[in-house]
Design brief:
Oligomer: single chain
Number of domains: 1
Order of helices and strands: HH
Number of helices: 2
Structural class: mainly alpha
Distance between the termini: 13 Å
Strand content: under 5%
């Protein structure tokens, strides 16, 4: 039997990571479109950070899903 609480946590993390996976590259693209703006580096850093969070949450979500399906504690 699978652990439903852990499964739902993993699913929520995956959904948030999918949202961040679209938002991060969009922000990075917007930063590269405005290289002469004084906030360029800050916007680029924000986009890279959001993209990194998306990758991390994706791995954590998949890990929670697998653990819940295999009954690991």
């Amino acid at each position: 039997m699978m652990n439903k609480v852990k499964f739902l946590k993993g699913l929520k993390k995956l959904l948030v990571s999918i949202a961040f996976a679209f938002i991060g590259p969009f922000i990075i693209h917007q930063a590269f479109q405005n290289k002469n703006h004084y906030l360029y580096l800050y916007v680029l850093t924000l986009g890279i950070t959001i993209a990194g969070i998306a990758i991390t949450l994706g791995f954590m979500g998949i890990s929670n899903l697998v653990d819940s399906l295999l009954n690991k504690k």
